Amino acid sequence: MRKLNTYLNETDPNPCSWKGVTCSNNNRSITRLTFRCLKLSNSDFLTDSCAIDTLESLDVSQNSLTSIPDKFITDCGRINVLYILNFSANRLSDVLPTFSGFKGLQYLDLSYNSLSGNINSQLNGLVGLRSLNLSFNRFNGSVPTKLGKDMVLKELELAVNSFDGRIPEVLMN
Hints:
CATH topology: Leucine-rich repeat, LRR (right-handed beta-alpha superhelix)
Radius of gyration: 16 Å
Keywords: Leucine-rich repeat, Repeat
Protein name: Leucine-rich repeat-containing N-terminal plant-type domain-containing protein
Number of strands: 11
Helix content: 10-25%
Pfam families: LRR_1, LRR_8, LRRNT_2
CATH superfamily: Ribonuclease Inhibitor
Organism: Protea cynaroides
CATH architecture: Alpha-Beta Horseshoe
InterPro entries: Leu-rich_rpt, LRR_dom_sf, LRR_N_plant-typ, PRK1-6/SRF4-like
Largest sheet: 7 strands, mixed
């Protein structure tokens, strides 16, 4: 947590008092990090947030992040209680990272970025995913039928991309 306070310019030793940090009722564990609209561009702090094994929600939307570190994907994928990831409205580019290790993830928002390529296998294993927003990116290729078969999706946003072909029928139910 010491590194995280540096990124946030916080001096109080109690992270539960920091802006954007939500703790459990007994103030013993951090459950949410909400770092929205902080003009963050260095994504190094993301990996540091993975040291919080009680983390349920991470919202870094509306910043200037350009990448999601591989170490974040590896380390945070091990947090079983992490169910919300919001990276919307950043400057993420390149291909979609592989989120298959995030077994408890229910909500993933990567909208309003510049991610590209296809989305064939990067979301495999997200069987509990209920909401996926990949709109306003540069994805192409076909929309995989696995999105409807392997997940319990209730919400799927794919608007303003360059997908080919038709939307699979399994996604229309």
